[in-house]
């Protein structure tokens, strides 16, 4: 069996790229936003969307991004399943986990002790205010749509499944019936009714 050389490391892959592309990879790994990464890597702001997408299609850049993601995951000791679980907490969160309505219809904040495991991580902020009508509590949850899109990005197949075509091809047609008896024969599959 041949000795297979180890795959190049993230730093080695970065060294193989031109400086500007390496900077793009580093910036992209911060927030996975290709346009913002392109701007921070000093590409043109006007063409940032196009430039970011184009860079991610280049084999060297793609390899460095994947190696960088793998290194980050290893360093943080997280895996795809943990990320999806955390995104699912946000994406499938329910306001009823945090607020209940009393018999008068007024909202009442659920005590934090009543929160199910992990639900507190869904809360982005809590704001307490005193108003002329009494105290006001504002609970802001993390962005559900963004979390759900993050889940889709991680679980969707790389290539969409092929579409299924449902089509029928006729190569010959029976002659159009001229009489009621011929119509009936056509309905019965071309057989004459036996007496």
Unreliable spans are 164-171
Number of strands: 4
Distance between the termini: 79 Å
Kindly report the spatial arrangement of strands forming the biggest sheet.
1-2
Give a quick account of the main beta sheet: strands, pairing sense, barrel closure.
2 strands, antiparallel
| Overall average residue pLDDT | 79
Report the top-level CATH class of the domain at 10-77: Mainly Alpha
Number of DSSP helical runs: 8
Class computed from helices, strands and strand pairing: alpha+beta
Beta-strand proportion: 5-15%
CATH superfamily of the domain at 10-77: Terminase, small subunit, N-terminal DNA-binding domain, HTH motif
Radius of gyration: 30 Å
Any guess at the CATH architecture of the domain at 10-77? Orthogonal Bundle
Binned, the helix content reads: 40-55%
Choose one word for the global shape: flat
* CATH topology annotation of the domain at 10-77: Arc Repressor Mutant, subunit A
- SSE pattern, N- to C-terminal: HHHHHHEEEEHH
């Amino acid at each position: 069996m041949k000795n297979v050389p180890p795959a190049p490391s993230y730093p080695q892959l970065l060294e193989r790229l031109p400086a500007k592309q390496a900077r793009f990879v580093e910036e992209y790994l911060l927030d996975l936003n290709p346009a913002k990464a392109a701007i921070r890597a000093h590409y043109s702001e006007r063409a940032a969307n196009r430039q970011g997408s184009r860079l991610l299609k280049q084999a060297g850049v793609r390899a460095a991004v994947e190696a960088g993601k793998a290194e980050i995951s290893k360093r943080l000791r997280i895996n795809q399943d943990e990320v999806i679980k955390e995104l699912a907490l946000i994406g499938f969160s329910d306001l009823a986990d945090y607020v209940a309505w009393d018999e008068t219809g007024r909202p009442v904040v659920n005590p934090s002790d009543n929160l199910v495991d992990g639900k507190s991580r869904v809360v982005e902020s809590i704001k307490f205010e005193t108003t002329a009508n009494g105290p006001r509590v504002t609970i802001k949850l993390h962005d559900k749509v963004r979390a759900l899109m993050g889940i889709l990005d991680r679980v969707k197949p790389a290539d969409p499944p092929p579409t299924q075509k449902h089509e029928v091809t006729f190569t010959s047609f029976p002659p159009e019936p001229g009489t009621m008896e011929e119509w009936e024969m056509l309905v019965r599959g071309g057989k004459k009714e036996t007496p």
